[in-house]
Structures are given as structure tokens and as C-alpha cells.
Amino acid sequence: MALLHDEDYRILNESGLLYEEGEADRFLVIKNFPLSPGFYVDSASEPIDLLEILWIVPSDYNTSGGDMFWVYPEFRRADNKPIPNVGGDPRIFNGKQYSRWSRHWKAETWKPKTDNIEKVLARIEWALKKPDANL
Prior knowledge:
alpha+beta, globular, UBQ-conjugat_E2_E, three-stranded antiparallel sheet, six-stranded antiparallel sheet
């Protein structure tokens, strides 16, 4: 059973993003999500410019859009500033533990039955570029 709509798969395939699905848990995992160069570092303080994003596809995603995502590996800001609303409630997929990024977008920012995976990816990109922003 597909988690997304045909148009969503077309967008993902054309984007160059590699993805995998865990249908039982409704996981969509983007394997090569790009980060802003120099903004984040891994646990060894090495710059990180790609990570994995796990997004739980809500059963009503076309009308709700979802509001959280998880990342692997864990990382921190290169400037050592804290990242608000991260951690807790991890998800496990293929033996990897993904750390939660809780971002609750305002419902009116999602256009039901119009917005798609492109909007989801844009929200994630925005959150990673502006981790301090109020939603």
C-alpha cells in the first residue's frame, strides 16, 4: 500500500532525494537530505551536510500535513547554541535511532488536498535552516 499519492512519488523521484518507506509504521525516510554547509556538526564535531529525515505520514496527510520529523544521526549546531524542541520520543528504523524535531506548524499554513510532499520537504528545510524560529 502506497503511503503517498502518485504526484508525491513523482516529486520525490525528480528531486534526487533517495527515500525508503516503512509501511507498517507509515515511515517515509529521506536518505540524503541536504543541510546548510557549516551550520551543523556531528557528535565528533565534524561538519555534517547530509542527514536522514524520518517523517511519519499521517493517514490523512493530504488534509493535515503532519507536524514533526525525526533526524539521524543526532547533531548539534556548530555555534553550540541549543536547538529548541528536539529529543525525546525517538523512532527506530532499520536499526537506527532517529531523534525527534517537534515543529507544530499552524493549521492554516497547509492547504488541504492542494499541498503535497513538496510542502512537507519545504517545512523540514525551513526548520533546519531556522531552528530558533517560532512557528
